[in-house]
Predict the structure of Amino acid permease-associated region.
Amino acid sequence: MTAASTDSTDSRDRRKLTQLPAIALVVGSMLGIGIFIMPPQVAANVAGPWSFLAMWIVGGLAALFGALCLAELGAMRPRSGGDYEFLHIGWGPGIAFAAGWLQLLVIFPGSLASVAVATAKFQFPVLLGSWAGGDVALLGLTIPAPRLTAAALVLVLTLINHYGVRIAGWLQVLVTVVPILVLLIVSVYVLGDSAGGETLREGTTATPKGDGGGGISALGQAYLKVYFAYSGWNAALYVAGEIDHPGRNIPRALVGGTGLVTGLYVLLCLGFLSVFGFAGLPGVGEAGTAAAVQLFGPAAVTGMAVLILLAMIGSLNGTTLIGSRIAFAMARRGDCVEAAGRVHPRHGTPHVALWLQAAIALALIFSPFNLDQMINYTSSAMLITGTLTVLSVVVLRRKMPNAPRPYKTTMYPLPAVGYALSSLVVLVLVVLDRDPSVLVAVAWFAAALVFWRLFVKHREHEPPPIM
Protein backbone atom coordinates (compact mmCIF):
# COMPACT_ATOMS: atom_id res chain seq x y z
CA MET A 1 0.00 0.00 0.00
CA THR A 2 1.45 3.38 -0.97
CA ALA A 3 1.46 6.52 1.14
CA ALA A 4 -1.00 8.19 -1.16
CA SER A 5 -3.49 5.37 -1.03
CA THR A 6 -3.68 5.54 2.75
CA ASP A 7 -4.47 9.23 2.99
CA SER A 8 -8.17 8.64 2.59
CA THR A 9 -8.33 6.08 5.37
CA ASP A 10 -10.30 7.21 8.38
CA SER A 11 -7.71 8.26 10.96
CA ARG A 12 -9.97 7.04 13.74
CA ASP A 13 -9.41 3.46 12.56
CA ARG A 14 -5.72 3.85 13.38
CA ARG A 15 -6.23 5.25 16.90
CA LYS A 16 -5.59 1.99 18.73
CA LEU A 17 -3.55 3.24 21.69
CA THR A 18 -5.77 3.95 24.69
CA GLN A 19 -4.80 5.94 27.78
CA LEU A 20 -2.99 3.21 29.74
CA PRO A 21 -0.75 2.04 26.86
CA ALA A 22 -0.01 5.70 26.04
CA ILE A 23 1.13 6.38 29.62
CA ALA A 24 3.08 3.12 29.63
CA LEU A 25 4.77 4.19 26.40
CA VAL A 26 6.07 7.37 28.06
CA VAL A 27 7.07 5.63 31.30
CA GLY A 28 8.64 2.67 29.53
CA SER A 29 10.53 4.87 27.08
CA MET A 30 11.99 6.86 29.97
CA LEU A 31 12.70 3.99 32.37
CA GLY A 32 15.73 2.65 30.54
CA ILE A 33 19.24 1.63 31.47
CA GLY A 34 20.06 5.27 32.23
CA ILE A 35 18.81 5.33 35.82
CA PHE A 36 20.97 2.29 36.64
CA ILE A 37 24.27 3.19 34.93
CA MET A 38 24.15 7.01 35.00
CA PRO A 39 24.00 7.77 38.77
CA PRO A 40 27.61 6.58 39.33
CA GLN A 41 28.78 8.68 36.36
CA VAL A 42 26.85 11.72 37.54
CA ALA A 43 28.28 11.34 41.06
CA ALA A 44 31.78 11.30 39.54
CA ASN A 45 31.20 14.76 38.05
CA VAL A 46 29.60 16.67 40.93
CA ALA A 47 30.91 17.95 44.26
CA GLY A 48 28.58 16.27 46.76
CA PRO A 49 25.31 14.44 47.42
CA TRP A 50 23.16 17.56 47.40
CA SER A 51 24.42 18.64 43.99
CA PHE A 52 23.96 15.02 42.84
CA LEU A 53 20.30 15.06 43.87
CA ALA A 54 19.84 18.57 42.52
CA MET A 55 21.05 17.39 39.11
CA TRP A 56 18.33 14.70 38.99
CA ILE A 57 15.63 17.07 40.26
CA VAL A 58 16.56 19.74 37.70
CA GLY A 59 16.57 17.10 34.96
CA GLY A 60 13.10 15.98 36.03
CA LEU A 61 11.79 19.55 36.11
CA ALA A 62 13.19 20.17 32.62
CA ALA A 63 11.45 17.02 31.37
CA LEU A 64 8.19 18.15 33.01
CA PHE A 65 8.54 21.61 31.45
CA GLY A 66 8.99 19.98 28.06
CA ALA A 67 6.05 17.64 28.62
CA LEU A 68 3.76 20.56 29.52
CA CYS A 69 4.65 22.33 26.26
CA LEU A 70 4.39 19.27 24.05
CA ALA A 71 1.06 18.32 25.63
CA GLU A 72 -0.41 21.49 24.12
CA LEU A 73 1.11 20.75 20.72
CA GLY A 74 0.03 17.10 20.66
CA ALA A 75 -3.54 17.87 21.72
CA MET A 76 -3.76 20.69 19.17
CA ARG A 77 -2.47 18.65 16.22
CA PRO A 78 -2.58 14.90 16.98
CA ARG A 79 -0.53 13.49 14.12
CA SER A 80 2.25 10.93 14.22
CA GLY A 81 5.73 12.26 13.58
CA GLY A 82 6.53 14.07 16.81
CA ASP A 83 9.11 16.85 16.65
CA TYR A 84 9.28 16.77 12.86
CA GLU A 85 5.60 17.68 12.47
CA PHE A 86 5.69 20.64 14.87
CA LEU A 87 9.02 21.94 13.63
CA HIS A 88 7.53 21.91 10.12
CA ILE A 89 4.50 24.03 10.98
CA GLY A 90 6.34 26.14 13.57
CA TRP A 91 9.83 26.78 12.23
CA GLY A 92 9.36 25.86 8.58
CA PRO A 93 10.36 22.98 6.28
CA GLY A 94 14.12 23.64 6.41
CA ILE A 95 14.46 23.32 10.19
CA ALA A 96 12.09 20.32 10.15
CA PHE A 97 14.16 18.62 7.43
CA ALA A 98 17.44 19.10 9.33
CA ALA A 99 15.97 18.01 12.67
CA GLY A 100 14.21 15.05 11.06
CA TRP A 101 17.42 13.69 9.59
CA LEU A 102 19.24 14.24 12.89
CA GLN A 103 16.56 12.13 14.57
CA LEU A 104 16.54 9.53 11.81
CA LEU A 105 20.33 9.04 11.70
CA VAL A 106 21.44 9.84 15.26
CA ILE A 107 18.81 10.22 17.96
CA PHE A 108 16.53 7.20 17.67
CA PRO A 109 19.04 4.69 16.27
CA GLY A 110 21.55 6.03 18.80
CA SER A 111 19.07 5.54 21.64
CA LEU A 112 18.28 2.02 20.48
CA ALA A 113 21.95 1.13 20.09
CA SER A 114 22.96 2.66 23.45
CA VAL A 115 20.24 0.98 25.50
CA ALA A 116 20.61 -2.36 23.71
CA VAL A 117 24.40 -2.43 24.16
CA ALA A 118 24.16 -1.37 27.82
CA THR A 119 21.50 -4.02 28.49
CA ALA A 120 23.59 -6.71 26.82
CA LYS A 121 26.73 -5.57 28.62
CA PHE A 122 25.35 -5.35 32.16
CA GLN A 123 22.33 -7.68 32.41
CA PHE A 124 22.96 -10.68 30.18
CA PRO A 125 26.28 -11.72 31.80
CA VAL A 126 24.47 -11.75 35.16
CA LEU A 127 21.66 -13.92 33.79
CA LEU A 128 23.53 -16.13 31.31
CA GLY A 129 27.07 -16.27 32.63
CA SER A 130 30.38 -14.61 31.83
CA TRP A 131 30.42 -15.90 28.24
CA ALA A 132 27.66 -13.37 27.42
CA GLY A 133 30.15 -10.60 28.15
CA GLY A 134 33.05 -12.08 26.20
CA ASP A 135 33.99 -12.26 22.53
CA VAL A 136 32.56 -14.44 19.78
CA ALA A 137 34.41 -15.63 16.65
CA LEU A 138 32.12 -15.17 13.65
CA LEU A 139 33.04 -15.33 9.96
CA GLY A 140 36.70 -14.91 10.80
CA LEU A 141 36.01 -11.86 12.97
CA THR A 142 36.11 -11.42 16.73
CA ILE A 143 32.93 -9.64 17.82
CA PRO A 144 32.00 -8.70 21.40
CA ALA A 145 29.10 -10.90 22.49
CA PRO A 146 27.16 -7.92 23.95
CA ARG A 147 27.07 -6.34 20.50
CA LEU A 148 25.52 -9.49 19.01
CA THR A 149 22.99 -9.68 21.85
CA ALA A 150 22.15 -5.99 21.38
CA ALA A 151 21.55 -6.58 17.67
CA ALA A 152 19.24 -9.49 18.47
CA LEU A 153 17.21 -7.32 20.87
CA VAL A 154 16.74 -4.63 18.22
CA LEU A 155 15.68 -7.17 15.59
CA VAL A 156 13.18 -8.99 17.83
CA LEU A 157 11.48 -5.80 19.02
CA THR A 158 11.34 -4.42 15.48
CA LEU A 159 9.63 -7.65 14.42
CA ILE A 160 7.05 -7.31 17.22
CA ASN A 161 6.30 -3.72 16.20
CA HIS A 162 6.04 -4.82 12.58
CA TYR A 163 3.02 -6.96 13.51
CA GLY A 164 0.90 -4.23 15.07
CA VAL A 165 0.80 -1.19 17.32
CA ARG A 166 -1.82 -2.79 19.59
CA ILE A 167 0.50 -5.74 20.33
CA ALA A 168 3.43 -3.39 20.91
CA GLY A 169 1.29 -1.15 23.13
CA TRP A 170 0.19 -3.90 25.49
CA LEU A 171 3.70 -5.36 25.56
CA GLN A 172 4.70 -1.90 26.77
CA VAL A 173 2.17 -2.08 29.61
CA LEU A 174 3.39 -5.54 30.65
CA VAL A 175 7.10 -4.72 30.75
CA THR A 176 6.53 -1.34 32.41
CA VAL A 177 4.07 -1.95 35.25
CA VAL A 178 5.98 -4.79 36.98
CA PRO A 179 9.40 -3.04 37.19
CA ILE A 180 7.78 0.23 38.27
CA LEU A 181 5.90 -1.39 41.15
CA VAL A 182 8.88 -3.41 42.38
CA LEU A 183 11.33 -0.50 42.11
CA LEU A 184 8.93 1.75 44.02
CA ILE A 185 8.60 -0.84 46.80
CA VAL A 186 12.38 -1.40 46.99
CA SER A 187 13.08 2.36 47.03
CA VAL A 188 10.64 2.98 49.87
CA TYR A 189 12.05 -0.03 51.77
CA VAL A 190 15.63 1.23 51.42
CA LEU A 191 14.77 4.75 52.56
CA GLY A 192 12.74 3.46 55.48
CA ASP A 193 15.40 0.98 56.57
CA SER A 194 18.49 3.20 56.33
CA ALA A 195 19.71 6.56 57.58
CA GLY A 196 19.38 8.38 54.25
CA GLY A 197 19.65 11.76 55.89
CA GLU A 198 22.93 10.75 57.58
CA THR A 199 24.26 9.57 54.24
CA LEU A 200 23.59 12.99 52.74
CA ARG A 201 25.27 14.85 55.57
CA GLU A 202 28.27 12.55 55.91
CA GLY A 203 28.89 12.46 52.17
CA THR A 204 29.04 16.19 51.67
CA THR A 205 32.82 16.33 51.98
CA ALA A 206 33.51 13.15 50.05
CA THR A 207 35.53 13.34 46.86
CA PRO A 208 34.09 11.38 43.94
CA LYS A 209 36.32 8.97 42.06
CA GLY A 210 35.68 10.46 38.65
CA ASP A 211 37.67 13.16 36.89
CA GLY A 212 34.93 15.75 37.09
CA GLY A 213 35.70 16.81 40.64
CA GLY A 214 32.64 19.03 40.67
CA GLY A 215 34.13 21.60 38.26
CA ILE A 216 31.80 23.87 36.31
CA SER A 217 32.52 22.25 32.95
CA ALA A 218 31.99 18.78 34.44
CA LEU A 219 28.43 19.76 35.31
CA GLY A 220 27.63 19.70 31.59
CA GLN A 221 28.85 16.10 31.36
CA ALA A 222 26.78 15.21 34.42
CA TYR A 223 23.65 16.78 32.96
CA LEU A 224 24.12 15.01 29.61
CA LYS A 225 23.94 11.72 31.51
CA VAL A 226 20.84 12.87 33.41
CA TYR A 227 19.22 14.12 30.20
CA PHE A 228 19.79 10.75 28.54
CA ALA A 229 18.23 8.97 31.53
CA TYR A 230 15.13 11.19 31.25
CA SER A 231 14.86 10.88 27.46
CA GLY A 232 11.53 9.50 26.30
CA TRP A 233 9.35 12.05 28.09
CA ASN A 234 8.03 13.14 24.68
CA ALA A 235 7.24 9.60 23.50
CA ALA A 236 3.47 9.97 23.13
CA LEU A 237 3.93 12.84 20.67
CA TYR A 238 5.42 10.53 18.04
CA VAL A 239 2.35 8.29 17.93
CA ALA A 240 -0.21 11.05 18.48
CA GLY A 241 -2.05 9.96 15.35
CA GLU A 242 -2.57 6.52 16.88
CA ILE A 243 -3.79 7.59 20.36
CA ASP A 244 -7.51 7.40 21.13
CA HIS A 245 -9.15 10.66 22.33
CA PRO A 246 -5.88 12.59 21.79
CA GLY A 247 -7.06 15.89 23.28
CA ARG A 248 -7.41 14.16 26.63
CA ASN A 249 -4.99 11.24 26.53
CA ILE A 250 -1.90 12.91 25.05
CA PRO A 251 -1.54 15.49 27.88
CA ARG A 252 -2.24 12.81 30.50
CA ALA A 253 0.35 10.48 28.99
CA LEU A 254 3.07 13.12 28.63
CA VAL A 255 2.65 14.94 31.94
CA GLY A 256 1.50 11.98 34.04
CA GLY A 257 4.15 9.60 32.73
CA THR A 258 6.95 12.14 33.11
CA GLY A 259 5.88 13.05 36.64
CA LEU A 260 5.76 9.40 37.69
CA VAL A 261 9.24 8.66 36.36
CA THR A 262 10.71 11.83 37.88
CA GLY A 263 9.44 10.81 41.32
CA LEU A 264 10.77 7.27 40.88
CA TYR A 265 14.19 8.50 39.74
CA VAL A 266 14.61 10.79 42.75
CA LEU A 267 13.59 7.95 45.08
CA LEU A 268 16.05 5.57 43.41
CA CYS A 269 18.88 8.10 43.64
CA LEU A 270 18.15 8.63 47.34
CA GLY A 271 18.22 4.85 47.70
CA PHE A 272 21.59 4.57 45.93
CA LEU A 273 23.04 7.23 48.23
CA SER A 274 21.68 5.38 51.25
CA VAL A 275 23.17 2.06 50.13
CA PHE A 276 26.57 3.15 48.81
CA GLY A 277 27.15 6.61 50.24
CA PHE A 278 28.19 9.42 47.91
CA ALA A 279 31.88 8.52 48.03
CA GLY A 280 31.18 4.90 47.09
CA LEU A 281 28.69 5.54 44.29
CA PRO A 282 31.12 6.48 41.45
CA GLY A 283 32.84 3.09 41.61
CA VAL A 284 29.67 0.98 41.48
CA GLY A 285 29.15 0.44 37.73
CA GLU A 286 25.52 -0.65 37.32
CA ALA A 287 23.81 0.59 40.46
CA GLY A 288 20.59 -1.45 40.40
CA THR A 289 22.06 -4.94 40.62
CA ALA A 290 24.86 -3.76 42.92
CA ALA A 291 22.29 -2.28 45.32
CA ALA A 292 20.32 -5.54 45.34
CA VAL A 293 23.46 -7.47 46.31
CA GLN A 294 24.28 -4.97 49.04
CA LEU A 295 20.76 -5.09 50.48
CA PHE A 296 19.63 -8.68 50.03
CA GLY A 297 22.78 -10.66 49.26
CA PRO A 298 23.91 -12.52 46.10
CA ALA A 299 20.60 -14.41 45.90
CA ALA A 300 18.88 -11.19 44.82
CA VAL A 301 21.10 -10.67 41.78
CA THR A 302 19.03 -12.71 39.34
CA GLY A 303 15.72 -11.20 40.40
CA MET A 304 16.98 -7.62 40.09
CA ALA A 305 18.66 -8.38 36.77
CA VAL A 306 15.36 -9.72 35.40
CA LEU A 307 13.49 -6.61 36.59
CA ILE A 308 16.04 -4.30 35.00
CA LEU A 309 15.93 -6.38 31.82
CA LEU A 310 12.14 -5.94 31.69
CA ALA A 311 12.58 -2.18 32.08
CA MET A 312 15.16 -2.20 29.29
CA ILE A 313 12.82 -4.12 26.99
CA GLY A 314 10.15 -1.52 27.71
CA SER A 315 12.55 1.28 26.85
CA LEU A 316 13.70 -0.42 23.64
CA ASN A 317 10.14 -1.27 22.63
CA GLY A 318 8.97 2.30 23.19
CA THR A 319 11.89 3.75 21.25
CA THR A 320 11.32 1.30 18.39
CA LEU A 321 7.65 2.23 18.22
CA ILE A 322 8.04 6.01 18.30
CA GLY A 323 11.26 6.40 16.34
CA SER A 324 9.91 4.77 13.21
CA ARG A 325 7.21 7.44 13.00
CA ILE A 326 9.84 10.06 12.17
CA ALA A 327 10.89 8.38 8.91
CA PHE A 328 7.21 7.72 8.17
CA ALA A 329 6.22 11.38 8.60
CA MET A 330 9.25 12.58 6.63
CA ALA A 331 8.48 10.24 3.76
CA ARG A 332 4.90 11.46 3.60
CA ARG A 333 6.20 14.99 3.05
CA GLY A 334 8.82 13.85 0.55
CA ASP A 335 11.79 14.42 2.90
CA CYS A 336 12.75 10.73 3.09
CA VAL A 337 12.63 7.76 0.72
CA GLU A 338 9.05 7.21 -0.43
CA ALA A 339 8.95 3.59 0.75
CA ALA A 340 9.32 4.70 4.39
CA GLY A 341 5.85 6.24 4.16
CA ARG A 342 4.14 2.94 3.40
CA VAL A 343 1.68 1.37 5.83
CA HIS A 344 1.48 -2.41 6.00
CA PRO A 345 -1.81 -3.44 4.34
CA ARG A 346 -2.57 -6.04 7.00
CA HIS A 347 -0.93 -4.86 10.21
CA GLY A 348 -1.37 -1.09 9.76
CA THR A 349 2.22 -0.31 10.81
CA PRO A 350 4.94 1.73 9.06
CA HIS A 351 6.91 -1.44 8.42
CA VAL A 352 9.50 -0.01 6.02
CA ALA A 353 10.30 2.84 8.42
CA LEU A 354 10.67 0.32 11.25
CA TRP A 355 13.24 -1.77 9.39
CA LEU A 356 15.08 1.31 8.14
CA GLN A 357 15.48 2.45 11.75
CA ALA A 358 16.65 -1.03 12.77
CA ALA A 359 19.27 -1.08 10.00
CA ILE A 360 20.76 2.25 11.15
CA ALA A 361 20.73 1.08 14.79
CA LEU A 362 22.58 -2.12 13.82
CA ALA A 363 25.20 -0.06 11.98
CA LEU A 364 25.78 1.94 15.18
CA ILE A 365 25.88 -1.20 17.34
CA PHE A 366 28.72 -2.63 15.24
CA SER A 367 30.49 0.73 14.81
CA PRO A 368 33.73 1.68 16.63
CA PHE A 369 31.80 4.00 19.00
CA ASN A 370 31.88 2.96 22.64
CA LEU A 371 28.83 3.22 24.89
CA ASP A 372 29.80 6.56 26.43
CA GLN A 373 30.34 8.13 23.00
CA MET A 374 26.98 6.85 21.76
CA ILE A 375 25.22 8.37 24.78
CA ASN A 376 26.94 11.76 24.52
CA TYR A 377 26.33 12.19 20.78
CA THR A 378 22.72 11.06 21.12
CA SER A 379 22.06 13.34 24.11
CA SER A 380 23.60 16.38 22.42
CA ALA A 381 21.44 15.88 19.34
CA MET A 382 18.37 15.43 21.57
CA LEU A 383 19.05 18.73 23.31
CA ILE A 384 19.08 20.60 20.00
CA THR A 385 15.92 19.13 18.48
CA GLY A 386 14.08 18.96 21.81
CA THR A 387 14.66 22.63 22.56
CA LEU A 388 13.46 23.72 19.12
CA THR A 389 10.33 21.59 19.51
CA VAL A 390 9.52 22.94 22.98
CA LEU A 391 9.90 26.50 21.69
CA SER A 392 7.43 25.65 18.92
CA VAL A 393 4.66 26.18 21.47
CA VAL A 394 5.66 29.87 21.64
CA VAL A 395 5.98 30.19 17.86
CA LEU A 396 2.59 28.56 17.21
CA ARG A 397 0.84 30.71 19.84
CA ARG A 398 1.80 33.62 17.57
CA LYS A 399 1.36 31.96 14.16
CA MET A 400 -1.86 30.08 14.96
CA PRO A 401 -3.51 32.00 17.83
CA ASN A 402 -7.03 30.79 16.97
CA ALA A 403 -6.23 27.10 16.51
CA PRO A 404 -8.28 24.82 18.80
CA ARG A 405 -6.24 23.90 21.87
CA PRO A 406 -7.93 21.21 24.01
CA TYR A 407 -5.06 21.66 26.46
CA LYS A 408 -2.98 24.78 27.12
CA THR A 409 0.46 24.74 28.73
CA THR A 410 0.25 25.40 32.47
CA MET A 411 2.15 28.54 33.59
CA TYR A 412 2.89 29.47 29.97
CA PRO A 413 5.49 30.66 28.90
CA LEU A 414 7.58 29.67 31.97
CA PRO A 415 8.00 25.98 30.98
CA ALA A 416 9.20 26.83 27.46
CA VAL A 417 11.63 29.50 28.67
CA GLY A 418 12.91 27.32 31.52
CA TYR A 419 13.52 24.36 29.25
CA ALA A 420 15.32 26.46 26.64
CA LEU A 421 17.57 28.19 29.20
CA SER A 422 18.55 24.91 30.86
CA SER A 423 19.44 23.40 27.48
CA LEU A 424 21.51 26.43 26.48
CA VAL A 425 23.48 26.38 29.73
CA VAL A 426 24.23 22.67 29.37
CA LEU A 427 25.32 22.98 25.74
CA VAL A 428 27.75 25.76 26.70
CA LEU A 429 29.13 23.72 29.62
CA VAL A 430 29.69 20.68 27.40
CA VAL A 431 31.58 22.79 24.87
CA LEU A 432 33.71 24.26 27.68
CA ASP A 433 34.51 20.68 28.74
CA ARG A 434 35.97 20.12 25.24
CA ASP A 435 33.49 17.38 24.46
CA PRO A 436 33.04 17.35 20.66
CA SER A 437 29.55 15.81 20.78
CA VAL A 438 27.67 19.13 20.77
CA LEU A 439 29.74 20.60 17.94
CA VAL A 440 29.32 17.42 15.89
CA ALA A 441 25.54 17.48 16.42
CA VAL A 442 25.42 21.16 15.41
CA ALA A 443 27.54 20.37 12.34
CA TRP A 444 25.18 17.55 11.32
CA PHE A 445 22.20 19.86 11.74
CA ALA A 446 23.86 22.66 9.75
CA ALA A 447 24.90 20.27 6.97
CA ALA A 448 21.33 18.98 6.63
CA LEU A 449 20.04 22.55 6.53
CA VAL A 450 22.52 23.46 3.76
CA PHE A 451 21.53 20.33 1.82
CA TRP A 452 17.86 21.30 2.12
CA ARG A 453 18.54 24.82 0.90
CA LEU A 454 20.58 23.66 -2.11
CA PHE A 455 18.62 20.61 -3.24
CA VAL A 456 15.22 20.43 -1.53
CA LYS A 457 13.92 23.96 -0.92
CA HIS A 458 12.54 24.55 -4.42
CA ARG A 459 11.08 21.08 -4.81
CA GLU A 460 7.33 20.69 -4.75
CA HIS A 461 6.41 18.96 -1.48
CA GLU A 462 3.99 16.11 -1.05
CA PRO A 463 0.75 16.81 0.86
CA PRO A 464 1.07 16.74 4.65
CA PRO A 465 0.79 13.32 6.25
CA ILE A 466 -2.49 12.18 7.75
CA MET A 467 -2.15 9.67 10.54
